[in-house]
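Issue 218. Parser rejects a valid record. Input:
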Amino acid sequence: MAGVDRRTFLQAMAAAAAASGLTNGAQGEPAAVAVPGGASAAGAEGAGPFPQGIAAGDPRPDGAVLWTRVDTTAPGGTDVGWEVATDDTFDDVVANGIEVAGAGADGCIHVSVDGLGADRWYAYRFRAGDATSRPGRLRTAPTPGADVDHLRFVFASCQQINDSHYVAHRAAAAEGADFFMHLGDYVYVDDHATLSVDDYRGVLRRFKSDVLLQDCHAAVPFVLMWDDGEFWNGVDAVHDPFQTELDHRERHQNGVDAWFDYMPVLRDADDPNRLYRSLGWGSLADLFVLDVRSYRDAAVDAVSSLSPDGAVMMQAGRTTLGAAQKAWLEGGLRRSEAAWRLLGNGYNFNWWRLIDLDHPLLRALNPRWQHNAGVYAPNEAWDDYQAERLELLRFIDGEGVEDVVSCAGHTHLYFAGDVPDDIDSPTRRSVLTEFTTGSLTADPDPRTLFGGLPRGLAEALIHLGERFVISQNPWYAYVNFLDQGYAVVDLTPEELVCEFRLLDTFDPAATARTGAAFRVRRGSATVERLA
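Output the parser choked on:
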């Protein structure tokens, strides 16, 4: 988070909740047990010719993208064979070929497989010399307009390497999802030292060496987007505050090139830095995966919209999408004929105000008083681009675009709620709904952020902060500052059900539990909390 770190923010939320009198009934849950060690990132790199595993991504009706990396030592590169089969015994191979892994892409190869049947699973694998990779699972999408009665996907973000474990990836791999949408912070680079393309590749190699992450990639195809961890903290299109050795555009390009090297995503031939894109799932859903980092104006560190620095968040013309992406999104939403329109949002779209400074009496006394004025959470998300958000909400409402659901990441916190057209309008109503997932790993255990307080009391204070946020933002149905994990969405033509899976990421044997479940009925734009 820009401006305020997680420790200060959670402590401030607890203090604000206590000061507001939201103390009745606050109880802590049983404390988790910290386990020494850390994420299982060690041990895979250097083992065999495929040290970073294999991956599939971006399902299409006729195919998908396959990826792997080999340690290239042969002059001119290493031949890597690939094959796709209808079964995991590879008795019925339906596509195959050879790619050359060379030093230019750090030994990474990408295969665009096509000619496959729509809406089905396949197995795939790679060969290098006498070695064969583990098998992976590839999914194709339904054909455009095809009748589809169900889609199941996981979405998540934010995986650090620290004292917590990648157990959420193990649980997500077993969800039976059609795809895993990863919304960024796949890696965390060094703000000061990760500069060259080789630096960025080294970070990606280290993160992708995690065994549980490799297992997850092999089990389910990924749909990926970057956030700021892939470049530097708070990345935007304007500046790099952490070093002066490189122009910020050169450093950003190094991160982009390394990211594309290591992910199962194909570069656009006409715009090789473009990552925003859409994927269709028959008649059921159109998914718009948004890049909220590459084209954005600088975030706002100040939290009060009435301060000189904070007033920038209300400024007309500020953008997080950029003009081209915004036009693309509006055009896609307008043209979509699917039952649902899903947004893969790098950070939360919904309003998150901590103190309301907008009141009808104040506006009556001073017509120039700022509409939607307030103290906003230091989250460097869509609250920093309020005019652009309002334009999108008015577009969706004015064009009659219905059944829009935002799936967001970045905050390391869980949120679920309606997204109002105007939080200070007496006729406020919901235009779309949003679910924001927590982080895949902890950073650190939030129970340790309160000095020497007992863990149970620290949990109680965190829950007070959650209740305070809901009291100030009544359009939220759920807030969770404590847990880590991911979200699972089940989509049918009639409803969307989202379940938040929670885990103790400090326990290497942890299993996922459902912490909360929600439903959005088609045509309602309202989140219902399920038992």
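Fixed in the parser; the record now loads. Residues 285 and 340 are 5 Å apart (CA to CA).
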